[in-house]
Amino acid sequence: MGGKTDLERVVAYVPPEWKRELEEWAEVEERSVSWLVAKLVDKALQERRNQPNASKVMNVGAR
């Protein structure tokens, strides 16, 4: 398991309940949480690229 990769590391902080849900989902898929999150990010980026006027920065939450 593991090994050298040309991928970059990204750290994200999520609520404990999200982490538990991601762990359960990854287990069902027989994948790692890292793999699952990478696939979710890939899908979101593909959808964003297909939007005609995608902004450069995404507002995730209002402050």
Describe the structure concisely for a colleague.
The protein is mostly helical. Helices cover 49% and strands 0% of the residues. Helix 1 packs across helix 2.
How does this model look, in words?
The chain has 63 residues and is an all-alpha fold. 49% of the residues lie in helices and 0% in strands. It contains 2 helices and no strands. The longest helix is centred in the middle third of the chain and has 17 residues, at 33-49. The relative contact order is 0.08.
The biggest beta sheet reads: none
Q: Which of globular, elongated, flat, extended, rod-shaped describes the shape?
A: globular
Task: Give helix and strand order, one letter per element, not per position.
Answer: HH
Specify Rg, calculated over alpha carbons: 14 Å
Mean pLDDT: 88
**Continuous helix count:** 2
Strand runs, count: 0
Helix percent reads 40-55%
**What percent of residues are in strands?**
under 5%
From the helix content, strand content and strand pairing, which structural class follows?
A: mainly alpha
Distance between the termini: 40 Å
Stretches where pLDDT is under 50 for at least 5 consecutive residues are: none
Properties at a glance:
63 residues; globular; mainly alpha
Secondary structure elements and their pairing?
Elements: H1 16-29, H2 33-49
Helix pairs in contact: 1-2
